[in-house]
Amino acid sequence: MRKLKQFIGNSKKRILICTDGLGRRESIAELLKQSDQNFKEIETWQDFTLSDQKVCLISSPLHKGFFHDEFIVITENEIFPNFVKQIKKKIEIRALMKTGLLKILQSLI
Q1: What is the domain-level CATH number for residue 27?
Q2: Best label site of 13, 36, 67, 90, fewest CB within 10 Å?
């Protein structure tokens, strides 16, 4: 979070941080609060465009950030690349286990 806070401090543009879901948005919000970063949680793109807050946090399915003349969009995956990959891998493993278990149960019937 130190590097993110430094990036935000050095940027003259507004920043939108996108998370994969509401739960992850709450986790990132807590980390931002702990690092004393001022931000606003928003629900829509319009909320961001109407806000004058430098840093906003939104739940959005965006997977890659970008730079614009007036703002910067950063994704959760770009802030914590290894953490998101680990979660997705665990979900994939669980799905495979369920599928395998289902096949075994079906073969018994």
Answers
A1: 3.40.50.11140
A2: 36
Give the C-alpha separation, 1 to 5, whole Å: 6
- The helix or strand, by DSSP H or E, that contains position 41, with its residue range, turns out to be strand 40-41
Whether residue 16 contacts residue 58, with contact meaning beta carbons closer than 8 Å, is answered with yes
> How far, in Å, CA of 75 to CA of 63, rounded?
6
* Domain enclosing residue 60, as ranges: 2-79
- 92 inside domain: no
End-to-end CA distance of the chain: 52
List per-residue pLDDT tens for the chain, 109 residues long.
Answer: 788 888 999 999 999 999 988 988 999 999 999 999 999 999 999 999 999 999 999 998 888 999 999 999 999 988 887 754 455 555 555 665 566 655 655 666 5
Cα(10)–Cα(5) distance, integer angstroms? 9
